[in-house]
């Protein structure tokens, strides 16, 4: 599989395309904003600058998270992708939303601004819409393809995806297209009414839009950094695989964590048949780990711990962690 065909290569292509588009658009919007005096266009320029910084951070995330494991980081560097992606979300808010709010409020409450050469703004917005649409289509293709592979709806895929890059680009480009429509309306209403109020309101709405996107992406990466469990479908499959093993009488506890994109840590506590010898348990652990990794290619590390299901301290610990859900999933039987 080539890099472009791989998930990592697809994410890199999506991010690079979005970054190149945003840089070109940022320059055009800034020039048009200066010519027309439109606060909404200047806000959109800040929006594109923020998106450009975001793509740089996402590229950093893709590169650094692919470093192999070493002695200091035995589970690899996968979570670096979430750290840099979190910084990208902060960048959207700090440089995009805050500037848009400033430009909007200064236009609404400051000295009236004269509009000039609005046709320049319309042309730039039209070109920007085409370019942003190209980037959005690439992000949409990746999201649609991967959601189909996982047999999920697009909203469910975006909620559970462990690669923040396509989600970030998809959200950014979607917000960019909405922002362009808002800027167009602000520019048009300013021209028709002669009041800069509409231009300022458009800037404020663009700021709100960016703040919502930044908050959503920030929460996604925060949960991944903390240590989110694997896809529930994968967790259920692993539990069924373990429960179906002839050597295992009960799955007492099963914990999973995303170590990075396409990297899952599995920790299982199981009650083995008491008639088994130590060598039988060892062989069973090796076999089950191999079966897990064969069934789910994202499983990178497997730890299986033999425990008695009747141990009161273990039972209390499992119940304390999962509460009533423990009985639903069959934990601590």
TrEMBL record:
It is a multi-pass membrane protein. The keyword Transmembrane helix applies. One of its GO terms (biological process) is zinc ion transport. This is Cation diffusion facilitator family transporter. Its main location: membrane. The chain crosses the membrane at residues 12-35, 41-62, 82-99, 119-139, 169-189, 201-219. It is found in: Membrane. NCBIfam families: CDF. Residues 16-226 form the Cation efflux protein transmembrane domain. InterPro entries: Cation_efflux, Cation_efflux_CTD_sf, Cation_efflux_TM, Cation_efflux_TMD_sf, SLC30A9. GO terms for molecular function: monoatomic cation transmembrane transporter activity. It comes from Amycolatopsis acidiphila. Keywords: Membrane, Transmembrane, Transmembrane helix, Transport. One of its GO terms (cellular component) is membrane.
């Amino acid at each position: 599989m080539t890099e472009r065909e791989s998930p990592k290569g697809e994410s890199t292509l999506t991010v690079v395309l979005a970054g190149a588009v945003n840089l070109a658009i940022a320059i055009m919007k800034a020039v048009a904003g200066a010519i027309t005096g439109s606060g909404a266009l200047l806000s959109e320029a800040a929006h594109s600058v923020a998106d450009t910084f975001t793509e740089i951070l996402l590229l950093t995330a893709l590169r650094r998270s692919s470093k192999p494991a070493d002695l200091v980081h035995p589970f690899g560097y996968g979570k670096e992708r979430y750290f840099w992606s979190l910084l990208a979300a902060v960048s959207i808010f700090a440089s995009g939303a805050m500037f848009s709010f400033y430009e909007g409020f200064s236009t609404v409450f400051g000295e009236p601004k004269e509009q000039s050469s609005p046709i320049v703004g319309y042309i730039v917005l039209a070109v920007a819409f085409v370019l942003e649409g190209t980037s959005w289509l690439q992000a949409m293709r990746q999201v649609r393809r991967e959601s189909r592979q996982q047999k999920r709806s697009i909203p469910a895929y975006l909620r559970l995806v462990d690669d923040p890059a396509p989600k970030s680009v998809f959200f950014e480009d979607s917000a960019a297209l909405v922002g362009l429509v808002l800027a167009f309306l602000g520019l048009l209403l300013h021209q028709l009414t002669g009041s800069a109020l509409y231009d300022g309101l458009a800037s404020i709405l663009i700021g709100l839009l960016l703040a919502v996107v930044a908050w959503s992406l920030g929460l996604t990466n925060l949960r991944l950094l903390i240590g989110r469990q694997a896809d529930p479908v994968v967790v259920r499959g692993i539990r069924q695989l373990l429960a179906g093993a002839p050597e295992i009488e009960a799955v007492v506890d099963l914990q999973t964590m995303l170590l990075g994109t396409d990297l899952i840590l599995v920790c299982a506590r199981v009650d083995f048949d008491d008639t088994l010898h130590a060598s039988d348990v060892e062989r069973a652990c090796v076999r089950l780990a191999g079966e897990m990794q064969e069934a789910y290619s994202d499983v990178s590390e497997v730890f299986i711990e033999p425990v008695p299901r009747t141990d009161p301290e273990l039972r209390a610990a499992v119940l304390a962690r999962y509460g009533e859900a423990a009985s639903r999933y069959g934990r601590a039987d």
